[in-house]
Amino acid sequence: MARILIVGAGPAGAGLALALVRQGQGQVELVEAAPDALGRFRGEGLMPSGLEALERLGVWPLPPSVPHRPLAGWSFALEGRPLFAVDEPFDAGPACHLVDQPALLRHLLEQAQAAGCRLQLGAAVVGLLRQRGRVSGVELADGRRLAADLVVACDGRSSTLRRLASLPLEEEEEAGLRVLWFRLSGPAAGVIAAELGGRFLTVIGGGDSWALFASARGGLQLGWLDRADGDAGAPPATPGAWRERWASAAPSALASLLRELEEPAIEGPLRLAVKVGLAPRWQAPGVLLLGDAAHPLSPLRAQGLNMALRDAVVAAERLRPVLATSEAAAIDAAAASVTALRLPELQAVQRDQRREAARAERLRREGWLRVLLSALAPWAGPVIAHRWVREQDRLRQGFPLP
Ligand SMILES: Cc1cc2nc3c(=O)[nH]c(=O)nc-3n(C[C@H](O)[C@H](O)[C@H](O)COP(=O)(O)OP(=O)(O)OC[C@H]3O[C@@H](n4cnc5c(N)ncnc54)[C@H](O)[C@@H]3O)c2cc1C
Q1: CATH architecture for segment(s) 3-67+100-173+275-355
Q2: Is the pLDDT of residue 175 over 60?
Q3: pTM of the prediction?
Q4: How many Å lie between the centroid of ligand 1 and the Cα of residue 175?
Protein backbone atom coordinates (compact mmCIF):
# COMPACT_ATOMS: atom_id res chain seq x y z
CA MET A 1 0.00 0.00 0.00
CA ALA A 2 1.41 3.39 -1.02
CA ARG A 3 2.36 5.93 1.67
CA ILE A 4 1.37 9.45 0.59
CA LEU A 5 2.83 12.34 2.58
CA ILE A 6 1.12 15.71 2.05
CA VAL A 7 2.98 18.85 3.15
CA GLY A 8 0.78 21.87 4.01
CA ALA A 9 -2.79 21.91 5.36
CA GLY A 10 -4.23 24.72 3.23
CA PRO A 11 -7.13 24.00 0.84
CA ALA A 12 -4.91 21.98 -1.55
CA GLY A 13 -3.45 19.76 1.21
CA ALA A 14 -6.61 19.38 3.28
CA GLY A 15 -8.69 18.73 0.14
CA LEU A 16 -6.26 16.11 -1.16
CA ALA A 17 -6.04 14.37 2.22
CA LEU A 18 -9.82 14.06 2.38
CA ALA A 19 -10.16 12.88 -1.22
CA LEU A 20 -7.43 10.24 -0.79
CA VAL A 21 -8.63 8.78 2.52
CA ARG A 22 -12.20 8.66 1.22
CA GLN A 23 -10.93 6.40 -1.59
CA GLY A 24 -9.81 3.96 1.10
CA GLN A 25 -6.51 3.12 -0.59
CA GLY A 26 -3.02 3.96 0.66
CA GLN A 27 -1.79 5.53 3.90
CA VAL A 28 -2.24 9.27 4.04
CA GLU A 29 -0.30 11.58 6.35
CA LEU A 30 -0.51 15.38 6.41
CA VAL A 31 2.15 17.58 8.00
CA GLU A 32 1.68 21.30 8.56
CA ALA A 33 4.31 23.79 9.76
CA ALA A 34 1.97 26.11 11.67
CA PRO A 35 0.76 24.96 15.09
CA ASP A 36 -2.65 26.17 13.89
CA ALA A 37 -2.88 26.07 10.08
CA LEU A 38 -6.34 27.55 10.11
CA GLY A 39 -5.51 31.10 11.21
CA ARG A 40 -3.55 32.20 8.08
CA PHE A 41 -5.38 34.66 5.81
CA ARG A 42 -6.74 33.04 2.67
CA GLY A 43 -9.67 35.11 1.36
CA GLU A 44 -13.28 33.90 1.25
CA GLY A 45 -14.53 33.87 -2.33
CA LEU A 46 -15.53 30.53 -3.84
CA MET A 47 -16.61 30.42 -7.47
CA PRO A 48 -18.98 27.76 -8.88
CA SER A 49 -15.73 25.98 -9.94
CA GLY A 50 -14.70 25.70 -6.28
CA LEU A 51 -18.18 24.63 -5.20
CA GLU A 52 -18.01 21.85 -7.81
CA ALA A 53 -14.74 20.71 -6.21
CA LEU A 54 -16.33 20.73 -2.73
CA GLU A 55 -19.17 18.64 -4.12
CA ARG A 56 -16.69 16.13 -5.55
CA LEU A 57 -15.01 16.03 -2.12
CA GLY A 58 -18.42 15.16 -0.63
CA VAL A 59 -18.66 18.27 1.59
CA TRP A 60 -21.12 20.44 -0.36
CA PRO A 61 -23.61 21.59 0.87
CA LEU A 62 -21.60 22.74 3.86
CA PRO A 63 -22.88 22.24 7.41
CA PRO A 64 -24.05 25.28 9.47
CA SER A 65 -20.78 25.07 11.47
CA VAL A 66 -19.02 26.52 8.39
CA PRO A 67 -20.33 30.10 7.96
CA HIS A 68 -21.09 30.73 4.29
CA ARG A 69 -23.50 32.66 2.12
CA PRO A 70 -24.21 33.24 -1.55
CA LEU A 71 -22.90 36.49 -3.00
CA ALA A 72 -25.80 38.73 -4.13
CA GLY A 73 -23.74 40.23 -6.97
CA TRP A 74 -20.84 42.43 -8.04
CA SER A 75 -20.79 46.20 -8.25
CA PHE A 76 -18.22 48.65 -9.54
CA ALA A 77 -17.75 52.33 -8.75
CA LEU A 78 -15.56 54.79 -10.62
CA GLU A 79 -14.54 58.25 -9.45
CA GLY A 80 -17.21 58.25 -6.75
CA ARG A 81 -20.08 57.11 -9.00
CA PRO A 82 -21.67 53.69 -9.50
CA LEU A 83 -20.52 52.28 -12.87
CA PHE A 84 -22.48 49.02 -13.03
CA ALA A 85 -23.90 46.22 -10.89
CA VAL A 86 -24.59 42.59 -11.80
CA ASP A 87 -26.67 40.06 -9.84
CA GLU A 88 -25.53 36.54 -8.95
CA PRO A 89 -25.92 33.89 -10.24
CA PHE A 90 -25.24 34.84 -13.87
CA ASP A 91 -26.80 31.65 -15.19
CA ALA A 92 -28.70 28.55 -14.06
CA GLY A 93 -25.71 27.38 -11.99
CA PRO A 94 -24.96 28.26 -8.37
CA ALA A 95 -23.97 31.75 -7.21
CA CYS A 96 -20.44 32.54 -6.06
CA HIS A 97 -20.21 32.06 -2.30
CA LEU A 98 -18.31 33.60 0.56
CA VAL A 99 -17.06 30.87 2.88
CA ASP A 100 -15.27 31.30 6.18
CA GLN A 101 -11.90 29.71 5.37
CA PRO A 102 -10.74 28.69 8.87
CA ALA A 103 -14.07 26.91 9.43
CA LEU A 104 -13.93 25.25 5.99
CA LEU A 105 -10.39 23.99 6.56
CA ARG A 106 -11.31 22.72 10.04
CA HIS A 107 -14.22 20.82 8.48
CA LEU A 108 -12.06 19.27 5.73
CA LEU A 109 -9.38 18.24 8.24
CA GLU A 110 -11.89 16.75 10.71
CA GLN A 111 -13.49 14.72 7.94
CA ALA A 112 -10.08 13.56 6.70
CA GLN A 113 -8.94 12.55 10.20
CA ALA A 114 -12.22 10.72 10.85
CA ALA A 115 -11.59 8.70 7.67
CA GLY A 116 -8.05 7.73 8.74
CA CYS A 117 -5.66 10.53 7.77
CA ARG A 118 -2.82 11.21 10.24
CA LEU A 119 -2.36 14.93 10.87
CA GLN A 120 0.68 16.56 12.48
CA LEU A 121 0.53 20.28 13.20
CA GLY A 122 3.65 22.31 14.05
CA ALA A 123 5.77 20.00 11.84
CA ALA A 124 7.79 22.03 9.30
CA VAL A 125 9.48 20.20 6.44
CA VAL A 126 13.06 21.41 5.93
CA GLY A 127 14.52 18.80 3.61
CA LEU A 128 13.73 16.09 1.07
CA LEU A 129 15.13 12.56 1.48
CA ARG A 130 16.31 10.78 -1.66
CA GLN A 131 17.05 7.20 -2.59
CA ARG A 132 18.69 6.45 -5.94
CA GLY A 133 17.80 9.95 -7.19
CA ARG A 134 14.11 9.66 -6.26
CA VAL A 135 12.42 11.59 -3.43
CA SER A 136 11.66 9.04 -0.71
CA GLY A 137 10.41 11.22 2.15
CA VAL A 138 11.00 14.41 4.12
CA GLU A 139 13.06 15.71 6.99
CA LEU A 140 11.28 17.78 9.63
CA ALA A 141 12.71 20.79 11.49
CA ASP A 142 12.92 18.69 14.69
CA GLY A 143 15.18 16.19 12.89
CA ARG A 144 12.57 13.45 12.40
CA ARG A 145 12.48 11.72 9.04
CA LEU A 146 9.25 10.53 7.41
CA ALA A 147 9.40 8.03 4.55
CA ALA A 148 6.89 8.18 1.68
CA ASP A 149 6.22 6.69 -1.74
CA LEU A 150 5.02 10.12 -2.88
CA VAL A 151 5.49 13.53 -1.27
CA VAL A 152 2.80 16.03 -2.31
CA ALA A 153 3.95 19.63 -1.81
CA CYS A 154 0.94 21.79 -0.92
CA ASP A 155 3.10 24.30 0.95
CA GLY A 156 1.87 27.49 -0.68
CA ARG A 157 3.20 30.18 -2.97
CA SER A 158 6.68 30.43 -1.39
CA SER A 159 6.97 26.63 -1.45
CA THR A 160 10.17 25.29 0.15
CA LEU A 161 9.57 21.90 -1.46
CA ARG A 162 9.33 23.36 -4.96
CA ARG A 163 12.83 24.78 -4.47
CA LEU A 164 14.17 21.59 -2.87
CA ALA A 165 12.76 19.50 -5.75
CA SER A 166 14.35 21.91 -8.31
CA LEU A 167 11.02 22.49 -10.04
CA PRO A 168 11.31 26.04 -11.44
CA LEU A 169 8.54 28.63 -11.22
CA GLU A 170 8.00 31.02 -14.12
CA GLU A 171 7.15 34.21 -12.25
CA GLU A 172 5.18 37.14 -13.60
CA GLU A 173 6.30 40.72 -13.11
CA GLU A 174 4.18 41.71 -10.12
CA ALA A 175 7.04 43.18 -8.12
CA GLY A 176 5.94 45.59 -5.44
CA LEU A 177 2.22 44.78 -5.61
CA ARG A 178 0.73 44.22 -2.17
CA VAL A 179 -2.78 43.88 -0.82
CA LEU A 180 -3.40 45.68 2.46
CA TRP A 181 -6.21 43.88 4.22
CA PHE A 182 -8.59 45.45 6.77
CA ARG A 183 -11.36 44.13 8.96
CA LEU A 184 -14.12 46.60 9.80
CA SER A 185 -16.61 46.02 12.60
CA GLY A 186 -19.02 47.89 14.88
CA PRO A 187 -22.41 49.51 14.24
CA ALA A 188 -21.27 51.57 11.20
CA ALA A 189 -19.91 48.41 9.54
CA GLY A 190 -23.36 46.83 9.99
CA VAL A 191 -25.00 49.77 8.21
CA ILE A 192 -22.38 49.61 5.41
CA ALA A 193 -23.07 45.86 5.00
CA ALA A 194 -26.77 46.69 4.54
CA GLU A 195 -25.85 49.37 1.98
CA LEU A 196 -23.73 46.81 0.05
CA GLY A 197 -26.76 44.50 -0.12
CA GLY A 198 -24.63 41.33 -0.12
CA ARG A 199 -22.57 42.42 -3.15
CA PHE A 200 -18.81 42.53 -3.68
CA LEU A 201 -17.90 46.16 -4.42
CA THR A 202 -14.82 47.26 -6.38
CA VAL A 203 -13.89 50.95 -6.20
CA ILE A 204 -11.45 52.73 -8.52
CA GLY A 205 -10.92 56.43 -8.02
CA GLY A 206 -8.22 59.06 -7.67
CA GLY A 207 -5.51 56.51 -8.47
CA ASP A 208 -6.69 54.14 -5.70
CA SER A 209 -8.23 50.72 -6.10
CA TRP A 210 -9.94 48.70 -3.36
CA ALA A 211 -12.66 46.12 -2.76
CA LEU A 212 -15.21 45.76 0.04
CA PHE A 213 -17.56 42.96 1.06
CA ALA A 214 -19.46 41.66 4.08
CA SER A 215 -17.54 38.65 5.40
CA ALA A 216 -19.22 35.25 5.82
CA ARG A 217 -18.40 35.34 9.53
CA GLY A 218 -19.69 38.89 10.09
CA GLY A 219 -18.09 42.32 9.81
CA LEU A 220 -16.61 43.73 6.61
CA GLN A 221 -13.38 43.00 4.77
CA LEU A 222 -11.61 45.63 2.71
CA GLY A 223 -8.63 44.86 0.43
CA TRP A 224 -6.61 47.87 -0.77
CA LEU A 225 -4.18 47.50 -3.66
CA ASP A 226 -0.82 49.00 -2.82
CA ARG A 227 1.60 49.59 -5.70
CA ALA A 228 5.25 50.31 -4.98
CA ASP A 229 5.23 53.03 -7.70
CA GLY A 230 3.45 55.27 -5.16
CA ASP A 231 1.99 57.50 -7.89
CA ALA A 232 -1.26 57.70 -5.94
CA GLY A 233 0.63 58.85 -2.85
CA ALA A 234 1.82 56.95 0.20
CA PRO A 235 -0.67 54.75 2.06
CA PRO A 236 -2.26 56.55 5.03
CA ALA A 237 -0.70 56.01 8.44
CA THR A 238 -3.70 56.12 10.81
CA PRO A 239 -7.17 54.52 10.86
CA GLY A 240 -8.73 57.98 10.60
CA ALA A 241 -6.67 58.80 7.49
CA TRP A 242 -7.55 55.45 5.92
CA ARG A 243 -11.26 56.09 6.53
CA GLU A 244 -10.96 59.45 4.75
CA ARG A 245 -8.96 57.95 1.84
CA TRP A 246 -11.63 55.28 1.22
CA ALA A 247 -14.44 57.82 1.51
CA SER A 248 -12.77 60.14 -1.02
CA ALA A 249 -13.14 57.51 -3.80
CA ALA A 250 -16.50 55.98 -2.78
CA PRO A 251 -20.01 56.87 -4.04
CA SER A 252 -21.55 59.53 -1.78
CA ALA A 253 -23.95 57.35 0.29
CA LEU A 254 -21.15 54.88 1.07
CA ALA A 255 -18.64 57.68 1.66
CA SER A 256 -20.80 59.17 4.45
CA LEU A 257 -21.10 55.74 6.10
CA LEU A 258 -17.35 55.08 5.84
CA ARG A 259 -16.69 58.40 7.63
CA GLU A 260 -18.84 57.12 10.51
CA LEU A 261 -16.60 54.09 11.16
CA GLU A 262 -15.10 54.35 14.61
CA GLU A 263 -11.29 54.19 14.60
CA PRO A 264 -11.04 51.15 16.96
CA ALA A 265 -13.41 49.30 14.56
CA ILE A 266 -10.75 49.49 11.79
CA GLU A 267 -8.38 46.52 12.19
CA GLY A 268 -5.30 46.25 10.02
CA PRO A 269 -3.75 46.51 7.63
CA LEU A 270 -2.44 42.99 7.22
CA ARG A 271 0.16 43.29 4.42
CA LEU A 272 0.10 40.48 1.84
CA ALA A 273 2.69 40.50 -0.95
CA VAL A 274 1.28 39.27 -4.26
CA LYS A 275 3.24 36.59 -6.10
CA VAL A 276 2.04 35.25 -9.47
CA GLY A 277 3.57 32.43 -11.47
CA LEU A 278 3.22 28.97 -12.97
CA ALA A 279 5.52 25.96 -12.74
CA PRO A 280 5.67 24.33 -16.22
CA ARG A 281 6.32 20.96 -14.50
CA TRP A 282 4.65 19.97 -11.21
CA GLN A 283 6.27 16.57 -10.83
CA ALA A 284 9.70 15.05 -10.30
CA PRO A 285 10.39 11.42 -9.27
CA GLY A 286 8.68 10.94 -5.87
CA VAL A 287 7.24 14.46 -5.57
CA LEU A 288 4.19 16.38 -6.87
CA LEU A 289 3.33 20.08 -6.46
CA LEU A 290 -0.28 21.24 -6.03
CA GLY A 291 -2.11 24.52 -5.31
CA ASP A 292 -0.15 27.75 -4.91
CA ALA A 293 3.10 25.75 -4.77
CA ALA A 294 2.55 24.94 -8.46
CA HIS A 295 0.76 28.15 -9.48
CA PRO A 296 0.68 31.16 -7.15
CA LEU A 297 -2.28 33.23 -8.34
CA SER A 298 -3.28 36.87 -8.23
CA PRO A 299 -6.04 37.54 -5.67
CA LEU A 300 -8.05 39.12 -8.50
CA ARG A 301 -11.49 37.54 -9.02
CA ALA A 302 -10.95 34.96 -6.26
CA GLN A 303 -9.24 31.99 -7.95
CA GLY A 304 -6.59 30.53 -5.62
CA LEU A 305 -8.78 28.49 -3.25
CA ASN A 306 -10.86 27.24 -6.15
CA MET A 307 -7.86 26.10 -8.18
CA ALA A 308 -6.23 24.49 -5.12
CA LEU A 309 -9.39 22.45 -4.38
CA ARG A 310 -9.70 21.44 -8.06
CA ASP A 311 -6.04 20.33 -8.13
CA ALA A 312 -6.79 18.14 -5.11
CA VAL A 313 -9.80 16.49 -6.76
CA VAL A 314 -7.92 15.74 -9.99
CA ALA A 315 -4.76 14.51 -8.21
CA ALA A 316 -6.80 12.10 -6.04
CA GLU A 317 -8.57 10.73 -9.15
CA ARG A 318 -5.27 10.16 -10.98
CA LEU A 319 -3.57 8.56 -7.97
CA ARG A 320 -6.47 6.24 -7.10
CA PRO A 321 -5.48 3.33 -9.41
CA VAL A 322 -1.88 3.24 -8.12
CA LEU A 323 -2.43 3.56 -4.35
CA ALA A 324 -2.87 -0.15 -3.83
CA THR A 325 0.75 -0.67 -4.94
CA SER A 326 3.93 1.13 -3.97
CA GLU A 327 5.39 0.80 -7.43
CA ALA A 328 7.46 3.97 -7.99
CA ALA A 329 7.13 4.13 -11.80
CA ALA A 330 3.32 3.83 -11.69
CA ILE A 331 3.03 6.46 -8.96
CA ASP A 332 5.31 8.88 -10.84
CA ALA A 333 3.38 8.37 -14.10
CA ALA A 334 0.06 9.06 -12.34
CA ALA A 335 1.51 12.15 -10.63
CA ALA A 336 2.97 13.44 -13.92
CA SER A 337 -0.44 13.18 -15.60
CA VAL A 338 -1.85 15.71 -13.08
CA THR A 339 0.20 18.55 -14.62
CA ALA A 340 -1.05 17.73 -18.09
CA LEU A 341 -4.67 17.72 -16.89
CA ARG A 342 -4.48 20.89 -14.82
CA LEU A 343 -2.16 23.18 -16.83
CA PRO A 344 -4.70 24.27 -19.51
CA GLU A 345 -7.17 25.54 -16.88
CA LEU A 346 -4.45 27.34 -14.93
CA GLN A 347 -3.03 28.96 -18.07
CA ALA A 348 -6.51 30.16 -19.10
CA VAL A 349 -7.34 31.51 -15.63
CA GLN A 350 -4.05 33.37 -15.40
CA ARG A 351 -4.64 34.86 -18.88
CA ASP A 352 -8.09 36.09 -17.81
CA GLN A 353 -6.69 37.52 -14.58
CA ARG A 354 -3.97 39.37 -16.54
CA ARG A 355 -6.63 40.86 -18.81
CA GLU A 356 -8.70 42.11 -15.86
CA ALA A 357 -5.64 43.41 -14.03
CA ALA A 358 -4.43 45.31 -17.12
CA ARG A 359 -7.83 47.00 -17.53
CA ALA A 360 -8.06 47.94 -13.85
CA GLU A 361 -4.50 49.27 -13.95
CA ARG A 362 -5.23 51.39 -17.04
CA LEU A 363 -8.25 52.91 -15.29
CA ARG A 364 -6.20 53.49 -12.16
CA ARG A 365 -3.48 55.31 -14.09
CA GLU A 366 -5.52 57.29 -16.63
CA GLY A 367 -7.54 59.93 -14.83
CA TRP A 368 -9.14 61.28 -18.06
CA LEU A 369 -10.55 57.81 -18.85
CA ARG A 370 -12.01 57.45 -15.35
CA VAL A 371 -13.65 60.86 -15.53
CA LEU A 372 -15.04 60.17 -19.02
CA LEU A 373 -16.41 56.73 -18.14
CA SER A 374 -17.94 57.86 -14.86
CA ALA A 375 -19.65 60.80 -16.62
CA LEU A 376 -21.04 58.34 -19.21
CA ALA A 377 -21.88 55.66 -16.61
CA PRO A 378 -25.70 55.68 -17.16
CA TRP A 379 -25.15 54.74 -20.84
CA ALA A 380 -21.73 53.04 -20.79
CA GLY A 381 -22.39 51.04 -17.58
CA PRO A 382 -24.90 48.52 -19.05
CA VAL A 383 -22.68 47.93 -22.11
CA ILE A 384 -19.59 47.35 -19.95
CA ALA A 385 -21.63 45.10 -17.63
CA HIS A 386 -22.82 42.94 -20.54
CA ARG A 387 -19.28 42.46 -21.83
CA TRP A 388 -17.87 41.84 -18.34
CA VAL A 389 -20.43 39.09 -17.59
CA ARG A 390 -19.57 37.32 -20.88
CA GLU A 391 -15.90 37.36 -19.99
CA GLN A 392 -16.37 35.88 -16.51
CA ASP A 393 -17.40 32.41 -17.64
CA ARG A 394 -14.01 30.69 -17.33
CA LEU A 395 -13.12 32.45 -14.08
CA ARG A 396 -16.41 31.24 -12.59
CA GLN A 397 -16.77 27.75 -14.04
CA GLY A 398 -13.23 26.68 -14.93
CA PHE A 399 -12.87 23.87 -17.48
CA PRO A 400 -14.93 20.67 -17.11
CA LEU A 401 -13.30 18.49 -14.43
CA PRO A 402 -12.15 15.10 -15.74
C1 LIG B 1 -5.03 38.94 -0.22
C2 LIG B 1 -5.45 37.61 -0.74
C3 LIG B 1 -6.82 37.35 -0.92
C4 LIG B 1 -7.23 36.14 -1.45
N5 LIG B 1 -8.56 35.91 -1.63
C6 LIG B 1 -8.94 34.77 -2.22
C7 LIG B 1 -10.33 34.51 -2.47
O8 LIG B 1 -11.21 35.28 -2.11
N9 LIG B 1 -10.65 33.36 -3.12
C10 LIG B 1 -9.70 32.49 -3.54
O11 LIG B 1 -10.04 31.50 -4.19
N12 LIG B 1 -8.39 32.68 -3.26
C13 LIG B 1 -7.99 33.79 -2.62
N14 LIG B 1 -6.67 34.00 -2.36
C15 LIG B 1 -5.68 32.96 -2.72
C16 LIG B 1 -5.71 31.78 -1.75
O17 LIG B 1 -5.55 32.23 -0.42
C18 LIG B 1 -4.58 30.79 -2.10
O19 LIG B 1 -4.52 30.61 -3.47
C20 LIG B 1 -4.85 29.42 -1.43
O21 LIG B 1 -4.85 29.54 -0.02
C22 LIG B 1 -3.79 28.41 -1.87
O23 LIG B 1 -3.99 27.22 -1.17
P24 LIG B 1 -2.78 26.20 -0.92
O25 LIG B 1 -3.36 25.09 -0.13
O26 LIG B 1 -2.11 25.91 -2.19
O27 LIG B 1 -1.72 27.03 -0.07
P28 LIG B 1 -1.86 27.79 1.31
O29 LIG B 1 -3.27 28.12 1.60
O30 LIG B 1 -0.87 28.90 1.25
O31 LIG B 1 -1.41 26.72 2.40
C32 LIG B 1 -0.06 26.28 2.46
C33 LIG B 1 0.17 25.65 3.81
O34 LIG B 1 1.46 25.04 3.82
C35 LIG B 1 2.07 25.28 5.07
N36 LIG B 1 3.53 25.20 4.90
C37 LIG B 1 4.34 26.06 4.23
N38 LIG B 1 5.62 25.63 4.25
C39 LIG B 1 5.61 24.46 4.94
C40 LIG B 1 6.66 23.53 5.29
N41 LIG B 1 7.93 23.74 4.94
N42 LIG B 1 6.31 22.43 6.00
C43 LIG B 1 5.02 22.21 6.36
N44 LIG B 1 4.01 23.06 6.05
C45 LIG B 1 4.30 24.17 5.34
C46 LIG B 1 1.60 26.70 5.44
O47 LIG B 1 1.71 26.94 6.84
C48 LIG B 1 0.16 26.67 4.94
O49 LIG B 1 -0.76 26.27 5.94
C50 LIG B 1 -6.25 35.17 -1.79
C51 LIG B 1 -4.89 35.40 -1.56
C52 LIG B 1 -4.49 36.62 -1.06
C53 LIG B 1 -3.01 36.85 -0.86
Answers
A1: 3-Layer(bba) Sandwich (3.50)
A2: no
A3: 0.96
A4: 19
